[in-house]
Amino acid sequence: MKKRWSLATLLILAGVLAVTVALAPSAALAKEFKYAGPPAFTVTYPGFYTQDSENPNKVLYRTKQEGTIPIMEINCRDFPVPGMTLATVAKEYAKLIEKSQQTTVTITSEKPFTTKDGTPAVEATLTFLYQGFMQLQISAVLTLKDGKWVYVVIYQAPGAPMWDAPKSLTFKK
């Protein structure tokens, strides 16, 4: 009787361990993008993202998941609008997408965010109709640092799990 309980307990623990390992993201599967700057920063993203040979938005780095969405873009550029502030970065990013996609972009959420190194930023979610037929959602972290506009965005289907890659933006001191 005691052996049967021990075996049952062992099987339950093995099952729990297997599920935990299968569902937990592995740090070994993560990749890191490094930008020497200025400003110098890194972004950690899922290892199954591959660099995209297309770069229609002319960003520093663009990845996608196995040839489809989600698509991640990382960029660092001069301020496109004089007087841009953290209060306006999401609005200015929306205008950038509206111009490149010839569509209307809606900012569905926008809140203050602090990067891991303590840099003030904005976390925003935006939506738009891609090529007139496919609704897309953008998860973004946008900030201003050392005279540059830095952003990490992920384009994905609405309702898809939100990836934390934009939140991994970390500036080097």
Describe this structure as you would to a colleague.
With 173 residues, the protein is of the alpha+beta class. The chain has a single domain, classed as 3-Layer(aba) Sandwich (Protein Transport Mog1p, Chain A), CATH 3.40.1000. 20% of the residues lie in helices and 42% in strands. The protein contains two helices and ten strands. It has helices at 2-23, 89-101, and strands spanning 31-35, 41-45, 49-51, 61-65, 68-78, 105-114, 120-130, 134-145, 148-156, 170-171. The strands form two sheets. A seven-stranded antiparallel sheet has the order 3-4-5-9-8-7-6. Strands 1-2-10 form a three-stranded antiparallel sheet, with no helix packed on it. Strand 1 (31-35) and strand 2 (41-45) form a beta hairpin. The longest helix is centred in the first third of the chain and has 22 residues, at 2-23. The radius of gyration is 20 Å and the shape is globular. The protein starts with a helix and ends with a strand. The relative contact order is 0.17. Residues 13-28 have low confidence and may be disordered.
